[in-house]
Amino acid sequence: MLVVSLMRLGDEENRLKETFPEVDFEFYKHPSELPKTTQEKMDVLITYHAEVDEAFIEAASNLKWIAWYATGVNALPLQKIKEAGISLTNAKGVHAQQLTEFLYAFILDDYKELKEVYNEQKEKVYNSKRTTQSIEDQVIMFLGTGVIPQRAAEIAKAFNMKTIGLNTTGHKVENFDRTYSLDERQSVYKEADIVVNILPETKDTHYLLTKTDFEHMNDHTLFVNIGRGTIVEEAILVEVLKNKLIRKAYLDVFEQEPLDSDSKLYQLDNVYLTSHIAGNGETNKKKSTDIFINNFKNFLNKNELIENVVDLDKGY
């Protein structure tokens, strides 16, 4: 059994070798370093590189399982993987804590006016009269009710916020006061003060949000996107923010990445941008390897995977 990783895993490399001494592991920094003969022989692949395309899959004739060390699998040729009979798992849940921390950093930065306070600091202004809004009783709406939104909704309840979740069917989910289907979203936007996108990228979510969606939101809405940038066209976001259809946005993901230096988003004063870093965490590799080990034990003993198996038709 040959397991190939197209990323260096640090201490996790020794943990894998010690846990599975009978298995051959090879670790490479990048797909470009992978020998052709190894690509043809490998049984299992650990990666998160977009270079794993259709041609790569065709050349990996013995491949049985891809352990994707990220959550979104939209960069992969899912149909080709399905045709080749290859199983796919992802790192769903690994980023939940990190993304949740960033989400509330964004929200509190806004509600506590920390950028305005910092500007006063730079101007040597001592303003003890400033009074800021609390997030208590604010209604936060999540587009998506998966592992990450569930963790974020749990924290929202600790702040005494009210939570709404939107998913494919409107089914109930723990820590959400109310749930609706995504098809109902435009009729319930007015109930929310904060709208957060944490949906994966699929054929159904690609450009899901239109200008009409934002027109149905409150003009005081704070929009946060830590899901996928392709949920909305950049031109629509620019128009919405420029015309103040919503109050402000915090964006960690974008329609095209990296964000072009000429993007009109940089010219707006009611949007704050981070460079798709909200999911980056120091323990991501360890947590992803925990999932891999759990799956690999079953893969070796029962030839089956039991955690974070991706539905190749749904794309998540």
UniProtKB/TrEMBL annotation:
This protein's record includes keyword NAD? yes
Q: Where does the record place the D-isomer specific 2-hydroxyacid dehydrogenase catalytic domain?
A: 15-308
What organism is this sequence from?
Answer: Staphylococcus canis
Q: What's this protein's name? A: Hydroxyacid dehydrogenase
Q: Which PANTHER family match?
A: 2-HACID_DH_C DOMAIN-CONTAINING PROTEIN (PTHR43333), D-ISOMER SPECIFIC 2-HYDROXYACID DEHYDROGENASE NAD-BINDING DOMAIN-CONTAINING PROTEIN (PTHR43333:SF1)
Q: Which Pfam families does the record cross-reference, listed alphabetically?
A: 2-Hacid_dh, 2-Hacid_dh_C
The record places domain D-isomer specific 2-hydroxyacid dehydrogenase NAD-binding at 105-278
Q: What is the lineage of its organism?
A: Bacteria, Bacillati, Bacillota, Bacilli, Bacillales
**What are the UniProt keywords, alphabetically?**
NAD, Oxidoreductase
Which Gene3D superfamilies does UniProt cross-reference here?
NAD(P)-binding Rossmann-like Domain
Q: Which residues form a coiled coil?
A: none
Q: Return the similarity comment.
A: Belongs to the D-isomer specific 2-hydroxyacid dehydrogenase family.
